[in-house]
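Retro notes (design track)

What went well: tokenization of the new backbones is finally stable.
What didn't: we kept losing track of which sequence belonged to which structure.
Fix going forward: every design gets posted as structure first, then sequence, in one message. First example under the new rule, 229 residues:
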């Protein structure tokens, strides 16, 4: 079975590209090929003019933040334990890690005094997503991969996190590849959008391209049905 076939995409520095498509269309696969959690059978992924297959895998993953689908927080670790995990693995001093954790929690609007010592189960869904975003930002990576970071949230929380995402975006200028199956979200957050279907790249472009220049009936239908909801 082929999970993804013929994806051709160049992401500019500082750009946010949203990958959208139905379940099983290859979005997570595309994301995981960037940090080599999945190796493509053919083709090449290039980051900063260098093929990722030549890169040192530890250095590569350190330079790319990754927000895992469904958050991926460790349930037995506190919020600060989760956020500081990568720093501890790197062998940072305790105080240095604690300082970074506090900065990151402030950045995602979770006051450390209130949240640092809580367990993930003591957080709302939106707060858990914030923690996984904070964790992905630990080493201040230039590039961030986000797999449905705002999935499964109520509309109010989602809107709030969208706002925060856009604020962080204008503050930090990260190059971001974000997976979603919500077209309204892709339109709101993405500088460009890539529509995948059954492992194929169907259309790539801006909101205007999708609304005014759909490249096929499929795209027109997809856009129409999603925006109707
Ligand atoms: N480890 C795996 N082994 C075999 N097939 C897999 C594996 N992971 C994913 N697939 C298949 O590859 C295809 C693409 O999967 P992928 O996880 O990229 O989809 P997705 O677009 O992220 O879907 P969702 O929206 O449900 O997360 C699917 O058909 C899936 O069943
Ligand atoms: Mg997925």
């Amino acid at each position: 079975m082929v999970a993804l076939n013929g994806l051709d995409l160049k992401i500019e520095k500082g750009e946010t590209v949203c990958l959208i498509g139905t379940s099983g269309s290859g979005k997570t696969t595309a994301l995981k090929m960037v940090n080599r959690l999945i190796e493509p059978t053919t083709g090449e992924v290039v980051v900063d003019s260098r093929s990722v297959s030549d890169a040192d895998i530890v250095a590569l993953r350190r330079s790319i933040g990754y927000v895992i689908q469904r958050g991926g927080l460790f349930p037995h670790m506190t919020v600060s334990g989760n956020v500081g995990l990568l720093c501890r693995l790197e062998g940072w001093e305790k105080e240095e890690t604690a300082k970074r954790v506090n900065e990151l929690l402030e950045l995602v609007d979770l006051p450390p005094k209130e949240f640092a010592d809580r367990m993930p189960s003591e957080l709302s869904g939106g707060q858990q997503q914030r923690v996984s975003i904070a964790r992905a930002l630990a080493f201040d990576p230039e590039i961030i991969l986000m797999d449905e970071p705002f999935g499964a949230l109520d509309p109010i929380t989602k809107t709030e996190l969208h706002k925060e995402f856009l604020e962080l975006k204008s503050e930090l200028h990260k190059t971001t590849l974000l997976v979603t199956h919500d077209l309204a979200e892709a339109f709101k957050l993405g500088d460009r959008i890539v529509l995948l279907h059954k492992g194929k790249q169907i259309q790539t472009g801006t909101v205007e391209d999708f609304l005014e220049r759909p490249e096929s009936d499929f795209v027109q239908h997809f856009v129409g049905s999603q925006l109707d909801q």
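Added context from the reviewer: The chain has eleven helices and eight strands.
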